[in-house]
Amino acid sequence: MPPRQVPTVVELLWPTLQAVKEIGGSGTLDEIDERVVEREGFSEEQQAILHNDGPRNKIEYRLAWARTYLKGMGALENSERGVWAVTESGRSATETDIDRLHREYRLALRTARRARASGAATSNGDPGEDAGEDEGAPDDWKEQLLQVLLDMAPDRFEHLARRLLREAGFVSARVTGQTGDGGIDGIGIYRLSLVSFPVFFQCKRYRGSVRAGAVRDFRGAMTGRGDRGLLITTGTFTAEARQEATRDGAPPIDLIDGDRLCDLLKEHGMGVVTTLRQIEDVVIDRSFFDDV
After folding, report:
1. How far apart are alpha carbons 127 and 124 in whole angstroms?
2. 76 — phi, psi (to 5°)?
3. Full strand arrangement of the beta sheet holding 26-27
4. Of the candidates 105, 3, 119, 100, which has an alpha carbon nearest to the alpha carbon of residue 50?
5. Would strands 195-204 and 170-175 be described as parallel, antiparallel, or unpaired?
6. Which of 39, 148, 274, 277 has the fewest other C-beta atoms within 10 Å?
7. Residue 192 — very low, low, confident or very high, per pLDDT cuts 50/70/90?
8. Pairing between strand 253-256 and 229-233?
């Protein structure tokens, strides 16, 4: 039996806003996405459905659009640190209000686009059937970077992970790559003040969602060797995988998904160049001309 259809971006607007409210009015991307998945009852099969050919799954892609729309509608806001919060308008909005605000926002986008370039072609980032978005896809640079990572040879991706760990503060990191190593790709030593401890890592150059079983398998490979693991993927993790990673009584597994991996590569300047652009705001001081 095929998995239940994934809701459209428009159908996810209200659940997304409600999810942010339910986790205290603000949260990170992972917290928000996990809460939406939980409240809507999406299965691991639904979470594994890819957007086009990946690496993002369709739920993650559409939730990114839902947040972008809600921000444009004035119901959500986000900080530079990636924390999303409900605005005063969002707190008081009803489901009917969200439908109306969405229509008004879409109309404003189309009007602005026509004003900028009459007859211009629709942006290549338009996801079309998903919701008819008018602007480029959110975090389009991440989509490009993840495709580059997916095109890498598996061993080169493991060495990239090792270098990232060193840049992020590990005092040592090495790739093991041994056959029959139970899925462990390498080990790093992380120093926290006066204490150092080993961290085993596994790399999954992967399209779509990593499931809970993969987390359990990785933890099993660590048994008797260490009690801290790091699972890195170009894809995403299902809600069940995230829950398994922090299950009570089991060694914790830290998770780095494709979105966070892109942020880390950008933060450490590894293959990502950030160029700041300055925009002028010009204001006319009428009083100056009155006093000339």
Report:
1. 8
2. -130, 155
3. 26-27, 84-86, 76-78
4. 3
5. unpaired
6. 277
7. confident
8. parallel
Alpha-carbon gap, residue 200 to 218, rounded angstroms: 9
Residues found in the chain: 292
pLDDT score, position 16: 97
Phi first, then psi, for residue 195 (nearest 5°) are -115, 135
Structure tokens at 132: 């008819």
pTM: 0.68
pLDDT digits (tens, 9 = 90+) for 162-182: 999 999 889 889 888 665 556
DSSP for 61-97? Answer: HHHHHHHHHHHHTTSEEE-TTS-EEE-HHHHH--HHH
Extract the runs of DSSP E, i.e. beta strands, from the chain: 26-27, 76-78, 84-86, 170-175, 186-192, 195-204, 209-210, 229-233, 236-237, 253-256
Bridge partners, residue 204, by sequence: 233
Question: Is 181 or 244 the better-scoring residue by pLDDT?
Answer: 244
**Cα–Cα distance, 65 to 71 (Å, whole number):** 10
pLDDT, one tens digit per residue, over 91-149 is 999 999 999 999 999 998 888 878 776 654 444 444 444 444 444 555 678 888 999 99
Whether the CB-CB separation of 170 and 190 falls below 8 Å is answered with yes
Residue reference for tokens 């809460």? 35
The per-residue pLDDT for range 204-217, each reduced to its tens digit, is 988 888 999 999 99
Looking at residue 289, the DSSP 8-state letter turns out to be: H
Q: Facing residues of 201 across strands?
A: 186, 230
The whole-number pLDDT of residue 112 equals 83
Which pair of structure tokens corresponds to residue 121? 């072609």
pLDDT of 275 over the 70 cut:
yes
Cis peptide upstream of residue 55 (ω within 30 degrees of 0): yes
Bridge partners, 50 (sequence order): 57
